[in-house]
Amino acid sequence: MNEVSVQRVVVSAPAKVNLALRVGGKRDDGFHPLDTVFEALDLFDDVEATVAEELSMEIEGIGSDLPTDDSNLVMKAARLLQEFTGTSFGAHMKVTKRIPVAGGMAGGSADAAATLVALNALWELNLTKEQLSKLGARLGSDVPFALVGSVARGTSRGEALEAVKPGALHGWILLTNPVGLSTPSVFRKFDELCPDAGEPVSTKDLCEAVKGNDIVRLGSLLVNDLEAPAFALRPDLAEIIIALQTVGYGVVLSGSGPTIAVLCNIEKLEVLKAELANAFPELMIVTAVGPAAGAHIRQKS
Ligand code: C5P
């Protein structure tokens, strides 16, 4: 039986958008070299971990139909921590999901990051942030970013991070789509469309723009090399983006999609949300503000 003194830990971890996602040709390990800039949003999934004999999980909220067996990243994160530390402690993880599922916003990675932080505290393992990040990278390319949050440039397959100091807060309108897109299939389409891709294009200009507070300039630099393959698989997304380009701010596909992100001033969020809800009644529209914190403990008892 678990003899640790902490009984319950609640951790929140953020969704992300990629302000830039530049993709290179496929590596020998099957991953693609990236030069990307992540921004964490104040749209959080929560993981509540409580002491239990075995490992188990449940999901509340938008992903309640997702599997809760060992295929779930939450269970994988817990098992990886057990293996790495040699502990036999158990836990029950209750995930409250708000980040769209298969939406290109790293919801699964956020849940894995939240689980690592929650169990590190619940089991009193005292692993460092660096150790958690290395374990996280084994679970998914976006997990290290979900741990640190704010804004960061990601290279290699997205897990090698360098913090970028943001100059302003940004408003985001997220047009989430009821039909998800699989990340591997979008990367496969990228390979088909760009068989000669070399190194990814640098995101240096965008990193500089993030440090300033000119939102129009930042909007003009938003870019995603996965748009062409995602649009080839889902022409409906291209139509939405083309229609949105008239709003005057930056519009970009988030990660591998299908969520589309519109950058705007925070004061305009509600007005623009109402306009877009009118224009796209079939889509669920969510507002968020970034940058936001990485995975963090909200309650511990
Ligand atoms: O690392 P993650 O689990 O998020 O990746 C999911 C899939 O996306 C990988 O299996 C791979 O097909 C693709 N991917 C890629 N290159 C990356 C990141 C992800 O090809 N840099």
Which helices and strands appear, and what pairs or packs with what?
Layout: E1 8-23, E2 34-52, E3 55-61, H1 73-85, E4 90-97, H2 107-122, H3 129-139, H4 143-148, E5 151-155, E6 160-163, E7 170-176, H5 183-193, H6 204-211, H7 215-221, E8 223-224, H8 227-233, H9 235-244, E9 251-253, E10 260-264, H10 269-279, E11 284-290, E12 296-300
Parallel strand pairs: 1-8, 3-4
Antiparallel strand pairs: 1-2, 1-12, 2-4, 2-5, 5-6, 7-10, 7-11, 9-10
Helix pairs in contact: 1-2, 5-8, 6-7, 8-9
Bound molecules: cytidine-5'-monophosphate.
Beta-strand fraction estimate: 25-35%
Q: Residue-averaged pLDDT, rounded?
A: 95
How many helical elements?
10
What small-molecule ligands were found? cytidine-5'-monophosphate
Rounded radius of gyration (Å): 19 Å
Low-confidence region ranges: none
Helix percentage: 25-40%
- Biggest beta sheet summary: 8 strands, mixed
Query: Structural class of the secondary elements?
Result: alpha+beta
The gross shape turns out to be globular
Q: Please tally the β strands and state the result.
A: 12
Element pattern in H and E: EEEHEHHHEEEHHHEHHEEHEE
Q: How many angstroms separate the termini?
A: 18 Å
Description:
The chain is of the alpha+beta class and 301 residues long. It is 33% helix and 29% strand. The chain has helices at 73-85, 107-122, 129-139, 143-148, 183-193, 204-211, 215-221, 227-233, 235-244, 269-279, and strands at 8-23, 34-52, 55-61, 90-97, 151-155, 160-163, 170-176, 223-224, 251-253, 260-264, 284-290, 296-300. Strands 1, 2, 3, 4, 5, 6, 8 and 12 form an eight-stranded mixed sheet that branches. Strand 5 and strand 6 (160-163) form a beta hairpin. Helix 1 packs parallel to helix 2 (107-122), helix 6 packs antiparallel against helix 7 and helix 8 (227-233) packs across helix 9 (235-244). The protein binds cytidine-5'-monophosphate. Cytidine-5'-monophosphate binds at residues 31-32, 34, 140-142, 157-158, 183-184, 187.
